[in-house]
Amino acid sequence: MDEMDSRLIAVLRYDARAPLSELASRLGVSxxxxxxRLARLQAEGDVLGFTVVLKSDQVQDPVRGLxxxxxxxxxxxxxxxxxxxxxxxxxxxxxxxxxxxxxxIGTATLEDFDRQLTAIRQLEGVTASETSLLLSTRKAT
Length: 141
What we know:
Layout: H1 3-14, H2 20-27, H3 31-43, H4 55-59, E1 63-71, H5 76-84, E2 89-94, E3 101-107, H6 110-121, E4 126-133
Antiparallel strand pairs: 1-3, 1-4, 2-3
């Protein structure tokens, strides 16, 4: 998966129902490029399907937080793959600055949340982390 595939997936995460022409416009490529890349991502199993996110989906994760992670050496891609495979990890962002990666984690209880933090901190190559619980939403998107 290259940068264009990642950008395509990011746009689809925002609006999975966007027509090919809109996706192409947002990405600055042709419709044929979007169509072929999307078909390849589906064929290779990177994109398994499309879904709807409901307001009530936020309620399923009463405990949510952002975990900032520092990674040693060149292990970032490997750790991102490991993070993405964890069902409790809702989003993974690469960043610049002090932290290499920021993740959003969602669980049913504080105990579950703590278990996730512990497991992630034990991944080989994670050198430091800082976590902030999300308390309330002040502005809806």
